[in-house]
Amino acid sequence: MSTAHESPGDYTRVPNPEQALKYAIQHIVGGRVEIIEGVITPMSPSWAHENAADLIREQIGPRMRELGLRAGSGNLDLPGTQNFYVPDLAVVPADLARTEGALLPDQTLLVVEVTSPSNGDTDRTAKRRRYAQFRAPVYLLVDRQERSCTLFSEPGELGYTRVEGPYPFGRAVRLPAPFGVELDTAGF
Questions:
Q1: Domain contains 188
Q2: What's this model's pTM, rounded to 2 decimal places?
Q3: Helix, strand and coil percent figures for the chain, each rounded to 5
Q4: Does the residue 155 lie in any domain?
Q5: What is d(CA 188, CA 184) in angstroms, rounded to the nearest whole number?
Q6: Could you list the residue range(s) of the whole structural domain that residue 146 is in?
Q7: How many structural domains are present in the chain?
Q8: Is position 178 within any domain?
Q9: What is the pLDDT along the chain (188 residues), one digit of tens a residue?
Q10: How many CB atoms lie within 10 A of CB 147?
C-alpha cells in the first residue's frame, strides 16, 4: 500500500506546489493559460485584442532590430508567488528570446498588456503591481475598454514611480530609452 498521500486528493506533501503548478500549466495541450494571483486563467484573445499588440510590434520593430531585441508573448515567471504570466507582448534581448523556459519580468525591456472585457481589472491592478514588484522596467497598458494607453516606468517598492497617461487612443505615446519611439495609437 502506498503512503505517498494520506488520502486520495491529499496534495499537501507535494515538495514544491508552486513549481508543480507552474510546470503543469506549461504542459496543457491546446491552450494558453496563465496564473493570476493563484487563479488559473485561460487566454483566448480576440482579433481586436491581437490587432493592438501587432500594431505595437510593427511600430517598434525597426528600433528593436537596431538594438538586437525580440518581441513575443513568452512566459514570465514571478518566483515565490502564485503568478505565471503570458503577456500580450514582451521585448527582450535576442539571446534571451532563445530561452525554452520562462523569463523573469526584470529580463524584459518592455511588457505590454492589452485589456479585454474579461481581464481589464487584472491588467490595470494585479499585473501592474506585480510587474513593478518584479522590476519590469516599462509596462504599457493598452486599455481597450477605456480607449486609452498608460505607460508605467521606474519600478519601486510600492509600484511604478513614473506614470504617463492615461492618453486617449489617437494620441501618440512615446516609449522611453532605449526605444525612443512614438507609438501611433489611433488603430488600437
A1: no
A2: 0.89
A3: 25, 30, 40
A4: yes
A5: 9
A6: 45-183
A7: 1
A8: yes
A9: 444 444 455 556 667 888 888 888 787 776 688 899 988 888 888 899 999 999 999 999 999 999 999 999 999 999 999 999 999 999 999 999 999 889 999 999 999 999 999 889 999 999 999 999 999 999 999 999 999 999 999 999 899 999 999 999 999 999 999 999 999 999 99
A10: 13
